[in-house]
Every structure is written in C-alpha cells, then in structure tokens.
Specification:
It is a single chain. This protein has helices at residues 2-36, 39-44, 57-79, 82-94, 98-107, 116-143. By secondary structure, the protein is mostly helical. It has one domain. The protein is elongated.
Length: 158
C-alpha cells in the first residue's frame, strides 16, 4: 500500500508539472499571437480591424484577462483543487472536437476563420490536451483525483 502511495505522489508531481508547463506554453503562445497577428483576437471579439490601431484596447484587455485566467488555473493546479481536476478533464477531453473541425476547415468543407498556421497550432494543442485528458482519466481510475486517494463510502451501521 505504501509503494502505491509513493508512486501516486510521483505521478501527481508529473501531472502537476505537465499541466503547469501546458498553461505556461499556452500563455506564451497567446502573447506571441498578440504580437504577431493581433487581428486574430480582433476577429474572436468581433471587432473591426483598423490599419491605424494594430493593438486595440479591447484586444489588450482580452489578452490580460486570458493571462489572469491561466494564472488562476496554475494556482489551482498547484493547490490541487478537486473541482479543477474535473473541469480540466472535461475541457481537455472536449478538445477532441476541435481536431475534425480544423481538418474540415483545412479541407475547405467549413469556412476558415483564422490563418492556416494558427489552425495547425490550435489542432496540435488540442491533440496534446486530449492526451493529457486521457492520462488524467487513467490517473483518476488508478489513484483518485490528483492521486489523493479514492473516496470510499463508510459502511452503513445500523
């Protein structure tokens, strides 16, 4: 039993580091997109693009809100919030839907809203997130949430 607990803690640290690295890279990617192609954020926010205003205030505010959100997620991963485990598992698992949509956009069957390079990067991130979701599910099945152990119901007395 002790070896399983130690192994679970090692796996928990690996999962934590993986998620923190994922969110850090996501933050860096969001900043790079803002610098290289801020029109992507303008399109997401349904703002009209202006050649004189390369970085509108709304896109800058959106980027800052996104970074704050990612920081909150990183804090939650470090503190191993139980609700966050389930939220990440569902969100990362649902990203599998982004892969066929991106393929259909690249094939021309659906309208492409973003540049090809952005769609390919987004599809790669989605694939990575789905793999993390599968890993998180396997960890949950074997060790419990954040490897803190499985919740068992106490026997009924009476």
């Amino acid at each position: 039993m002790m070896a399983k607990n130690v192994q679970g803690q090692v796996i928990a640290r690996r999962l934590e580091r993986t998620l923190l690295a994922f969110f850090l890279l996501t933050t860096l990617f969001a900043i790079v997109v803002y610098v290289v192609a801020p029109s992507i954020y303008s399109n997401i926010l349904l703002l009209g693009t202006s050649p004189t205003d390369r970085h509108p205030f709304a896109t800058t505010l959106f980027l800052l809100a996104l970074i704050v959100f990612l920081i909150v997620l990183m804090v939650g991963v470090r503190r191993r919030w139980r609700w966050l485990f389930w939220l990440l598992l569902i969100a990362f698992g649902a990203m599998i839907l982004d892969i066929p949509v991106t393929i259909l956009q690249l094939a021309g069957a659906l309208p492409a809203l973003f540049p090809v390079w952005y769609n390919l990067c987004r599809m790669g991130v989605s694939l990575l997130a789905v793999l993390i979701a599968i890993w998180m599910f396997l960890i949950y099945r074997h060790y419990g949430i954040w490897t803190l152990g499985k919740q068992t119901k106490p026997p009924l007395q009476g």
